[in-house]
Design a protein that fits this description.
Number of strands: 5
Radius of gyration: 16 Å
Number of helices: 5
Structural class: alpha+beta
Order of helices and strands: HEHEEHHEEH
Strand order of the largest sheet: 1-4-5-2-3
Mean pLDDT: 89
Low-confidence stretches: 1-11
Helix content: 40-55%
Largest sheet: 5 strands, mixed
Distance between the termini: 42 Å
Length: about 190
């Protein structure tokens, strides 16, 4: 029987923060399932009543504010289909971040789930989505940072994406901004 990875002292092995999608090493047992569960809950909770271009601007400006306050080298993109509603590159962002933000955005739009979840589901099934010949890595990226904009009762209508940090941090930054915007409008939860 294979050894079960040990968790850090005081850390719950089923803690969703314990799973690191960028690590090739052993992960605490249950942490992948816990992270997937957290993302599914975020998808259910982070839904707008409607989503306008003004909402896209507010969300984009909030992401810029977070990035500038924290000196984050990020690219930010909010798109609806092929229409770019908001785009910015902060100090330190590189041309590669532009490629990544687009690839993650296309993944979230295609699957209508966060780009991080696409990659995590493949890992939960025992592999990597990138190992499938049908997954075009020049077009898509199953890495964290793109989150669909959901309208309750309608589904995914746009995407918000960030690139420049480790993929889990990119995802969490978008979730933080969505949570704050939806909290402001009183529609969170």
């Amino acid at each position: 029987m294979p050894a079960t990875p040990a968790s850090s002292p005081g850390q719950d092995p089923a803690d969703d923060r314990a799973y690191d999608p960028d690590s090739a090493g052993p992960q605490p047992q249950g942490s992948l399932a816990a992270l997937i569960g957290r993302i599914l809950a975020e998808m259910d909770e982070l839904q707008f009543q409607s989503f306008s271009k003004d909402d896209a601007l507010d969300l984009g400006l909030l992401l810029v504010e977070f990035g500038r306050q924290r000196s984050l080298p990020i690219a930010i993109d909010i798109s609806k289909g092929e229409q770019v509603l908001f785009h910015a590159a902060l100090e330190g962002a590189t041309p590669d971040n532009e490629l990544w933000v687009r690839a993650k955005q296309r993944t979230a739009a295609r699957y209508e789930v966060p780009s991080l979840l696409v990659g995590l589901r493949a890992r939960a099934a025992g592999g990597r989505i990138e190992d499938n010949a049908w997954f075009d890595q020049k077009t898509y990226a199953a890495h964290g940072g793109a989150f669909p904009i959901y309208v309750r009762g309608t589904g995914a209508v746009a995407t918000a994406a960030v690139s420049g940090l480790p993929q889990k941090a990119d995802h969490e930054l978008v979730v933080e901004a969505l949570s704050e915007i939806l909290g402001r409008t009183g529609t969170l939860g």
